[in-house]
Amino acid sequence: MILHRDDDWLVVDKPTGLATHAGKPGELGAAEWLALHRDEEVHIVSRLDRGTSGVLLLARHADASARAQEIHASGAATKTYSFLAAADSRDLALGDAWTREDEVDGKTAATAFRRIGRSADGRWVHYEATLSHGRRHQVRRHAALAGVPLLGDDEHGGPAAPRLALHCREVRWPGLAAPL
After folding, report:
1. What is the DSSP string of 75-135?
2. Contact call for residues 32 and 41 (beta carbons, < 8 A)
3. What percent of the chain has pLDDT over 90?
């Protein structure tokens, strides 16, 4: 579903199970799907893992893509994710909010976490994670380092689930009137 479209940017709600960009010839990612079904040629300016659903921002031309690199470098944009993790003593020790500042793939990365609430049965905790410089698996890695790996994230120590419980719920981007 298209959330926003203007001369520079296309913002879509990416479903889980669909990569941002095809990994191999013959595969279909969100970018290829948009070209095939919507006649939208886009430039990738941010990525969501195949298992992550939510707000995905794409550039509609090369100049916007170049501007996106500057926006990312300046830290002027933020992305906010929601995720679930198992409830146990580790999450209680963290408090209601904390920040992880660990390098990811040799680059600086900071993720601000906030506990939103617990499931009615007390088994799961709902968190929010906000970042400006997204690195590969940043939320997943920082959550695991904090002791609260995501539900469905077997790569980073999370409990088994039918899908990765990670959703990009908001992108704040310079030039867009409201967060998407």
Report:
1. T--EEEEEEEEE-SHHHHHH-SEEEE---BTTB---EEEEEEEE-TTSSEEEEEEEESS--
2. no
3. 76
* Spatial CB neighbours of 78, under 8 Å, sequence gap ≥ 6: 130, 131, 132, 170, 171, 172
Per the document, the length of the chain is 180
Q: DSSP 3-state assignment of 64?
A: helix
CA dihedral for 46, 37, 178, 9, sign (positive or negative): positive
Chain position carrying tokens 């948009």: 34
Pair type for strands 111-118 and 124-131: antiparallel
Inter-residue contact 128 to 114 (CB < 8 Å): yes
Q: Which of 137, 148, 163, 161 is nearest to 51 (CA)?
A: 163
Cα–Cα dist 89/86, whole Å: 10
Helices and strands (DSSP H and E) totals, the chain: 4, 9
The kind and range of the H/E element at 12 are: strand 9-14
- Reported as a single tens digit per residue, the pLDDT across 40-74 is 999 999 899 999 999 999 999 999 999 999 998 89
Q: What is the DSSP secondary structure assignment for residue 179, as one 8-state letter?
A: -
Strand-pair partners of 82: 128, 167
What distances in angstroms separate CA 80 from CA 63, 77, 102, 136, 152, one per listed residue? 25, 10, 18, 15, 19
